[in-house]
Amino acid sequence: MNKYSAFTISVLIVIFTLTINLKHAAADNQSYDECLLKALKNAGSNTTAAEIRESCKKVTETDQANPTLIEKRVQKEEESNDNPFAITSHKQNYVLPFAYNSSTNSDPYSLNWDNLTETEIKFQISLKYKLFDNIVKDNGDVYLAYTSLSLWQAYNKGISSPFRETNYEPEVWFQFETNWDLGGVRNRMISIGASHQSNGRSGSLSRSWNRLYMNIFFEKGDFAFSLKPWWRIPENEKNSPDDSNGDDNPDIDKYMGYGELGMIYKWRDNDFTLLLRNNLRTSENNGAIQLGWSFPLYKKLKGYVQYFNGYGETLIDYNASSNRIGVGLLLTDWL
Questions:
Q1: I need a labelling partner for 137 at 20 to 30 A (CA). Which of 68, 103, 206, 257 fits?
Q2: Where are the domains of the chain?
Q3: What pTM, to 2 d.p., does this model score?
Q4: Which CATH code is given to the segment(s) 3-332?
């Protein structure tokens, strides 16, 4: 399956899913009214209207008092959106003071950077802002977001402790709330968006790409996962490696693939996460796996352990495999 057929199939799936889910989402917003209608049809001859109303009120209150994983995140984000002094997180925000990579990639750098240390500081900052809400029949929100991921050679005094790599990713997307049940697995929302990611460098160190993507979120009990296919927007070839125009990394699909699968499982106060990517090729099959474990430390502060293996940890390493274990603090989690 090539990248174009995979993306086309994903588009058809999402269009079909949206058609169903917009209807379900509207119905979900009227769950109390639906309960009343259903109760009226099934009520006995001695059941009063007051009893029906009270019963449906309890059902609605129970649903609101026991929100699902994604509903909890949505509720917290709504509180943040209403607070002018709060900024909403997007992806995880963390700092790993100890991030050990057994296969540090020094190939892209000049000769005086050939002694990179295997231990770095890795941290991520990710924020988002709701620009518009309820633009399609009380559903559909537009978001803006910014994420930066950095690798800092803080312990490498021999080369003045530089930032080895920082990736910048602004993005915009359109998000629908949904309510489609498939065998007990609930499709909760769908996002359709665009992102630009680059490392802000020039010449041979420059890396960047632009993508259109969809993100489909599912949940069941204490487990949630997302399927995110993407399509890279093509760029023209460079006339020379130092040309400021043109494609910095024409073979990035070969290593980053055409999408990713994200998962999270909550057990008590612990969150376990999994991120998978693959290029879906039978020959030269490349991909990546990232495992995470967060646990409470003090109030809202969490400890965080992250393991990454594969290609594309950062853009400078998109075609070089990393094998990294990191330990540090998680400031905001996925859910």
A1: 68
A2: 3-332
A3: 0.82
A4: 2.40.230.10
